[in-house]
Amino acid sequence: MWLFSMLLQAAPAVGTDPVAAHGESYFSLMAKGGVILIPIFLLAGLAIFLIADKWHFLRKLDKSDNRALAYLLRLIYEGDTDKAVKFAGERNNPAFNVIAAGLKDDNGSMQDVEESMQVESRMQIARLEKGLNYLAITASVAPMLGFLGTIFGVIRIFYDISLSGQLDISTISNGLYEKMICSGTGLLVGIIAYSGYSLLNGRIDKVVLQMDVTVNEGLKAIRSVSRSGVFNGYSS
Description:
0% strand, rod-shaped, MotA/TolQ/ExbB proton channel domain-containing protein, transmembrane, transmembrane helix, 82% helix, 2 domains, mainly alpha
């Protein structure tokens, strides 16, 4: 409902009595906006949920744990592969999961280790970006739905005029005011979705950069102990 409050404050009604306009409830305005507002509000709810959920998820990852990394590297240098893999899995950290994938392939060549880490890295990035496509769709579809609702409203206005045979300016202005609610609401939802999409993408880029730095440290440790033959081998 707060979407209507913002729209009414930003654009007062044209050709209507201000007292009557302010006397209308949000529910009556919703009804006048038409059924197109239903999918727009569903998209608004989806966008807000995805933004809040993804932001909370990324916020937990956007914290470098130097002590945990130091402990994991120590386990790798000591050749305790099983303990290192178990510890990495318990951290629920994308970088640690990539390192664990390399440790599980420690009996193969370094090329096999690097390929396993690359595959896991792509999987972790896909996990970070999960849901962003829905935000992108919402940012594109919501404004188009709003314009579609307005077009349907204009068609309805001229259809009614053709039936009555009378051209009444107040009727046209009132009808347009009601149908423009669709356009304004759709644009507002699109702005929210696009802003959230851009902010989350920036946050993900930061997490991926930290992940690359951490994975590089782990890969150097694996290479070092692989050359020295310290690894005990991973037993699944």
